[in-house]
Amino acid sequence: MLPSESRLRRREDFATAVRRGRRAGRPLLVVHLRSGNTDPHTPGGNAPQVRAGFVVSKAVGGAVVRNRVKRRLRHLVRDRLDQLPAGSLVVVRALPGAGEADHDQLARDLDTALQRLLGGAPRSNPPGGAPRNPGHPGGSAQ
C-alpha cells in the first residue's frame, strides 16, 4: 500500500501536477510529473516527500474494476517512489484499456512513461520511419 504521507489528496495538488508538470502518455495510462519542490520556504531540513495521486474514471469500468486498477497502480507507484526527485508530484490517469490490463502490462506502461519523463529513454521515430520534427505542429517532417 502507498503510505498515507505519499498520497495526493487536495484538488490543488492534482491541478499543479497536471497543469504545470510534464506528461507522458501510454496506451493504458497517462503520467503527469511535476518535478521537485520549488518552494524555498519549505519548513524543516528533510527533503520533501514524493506524493502521488490517481485518476480512474468510469470509462475504465465499474466500481470493482476501478478499485482494482487503483490498487494495482498504488502498488506499482509505491515501488518506484525512490526513482523520483524529492518533492515531486505524480498523477497517474488510467485510460479505458487499463481495466482489462494485467499487472505486468500496467507496470510496463508506467515504467516507460516514467523513463520518458525522467529523461532515461529517448523517443523513437513514429511507425512509418519519418523522423519527428519538433518545430512542426503535426510532429513529422512534411
TrEMBL record:
Biological process GO terms, please? tRNA 5'-leader removal
Q: Which GO terms describe its cellular component?
A: ribonuclease P complex
According to its UniProt record, this protein's enzyme class is: hydrolase
Listed under catalytic activity are: Endonucleolytic cleavage of RNA, removing 5'-extranucleotides from tRNA precursor
**Coiled coil start-end:** none
Which domain of life does the protein's organism represent?
Bacteria
Q: Which Gene3D superfamilies match?
A: 3.30.230.10
The catalytic activity of this protein is classed by the Enzyme Commission as 3.1.26.5
Specify where the region named Disordered lies, as residue ranges.
Answer: 118-142
UniProtKB keywords: Endonuclease, Hydrolase, Nuclease, RNA-binding, tRNA processing
Q: Which InterPro entries match?
A: Ribosomal_Su5_D2-typ_SF (IPR020568), Ribsml_uS5_D2-typ_fold_subgr (IPR014721), RNase_P (IPR000100), RNase_P_CS (IPR020539)
Citing just one GO molecular function, the answer is:
tRNA binding
Q: Does the keyword Lipid metabolism apply?
A: no
Quaternary structure? Consists of a catalytic RNA component (M1 or rnpB) and a protein subunit.
Q: Please give the family membership noted in the entry.
A: Belongs to the RnpA family.
The UniProt function text for this chain reads: RNaseP catalyzes the removal of the 5'-leader sequence from pre-tRNA to produce the mature 5'-terminus. It can also cleave other RNA substrates such as 4.5S RNA. The protein component plays an auxiliary but essential role in vivo by binding to the 5'-leader sequence and broadening the substrate specificity of the ribozyme.
Q: Which HAMAP family match?
A: RNase_P
Name the record gives this protein? Ribonuclease P protein component
- Tell me what gene encodes this: rnpA
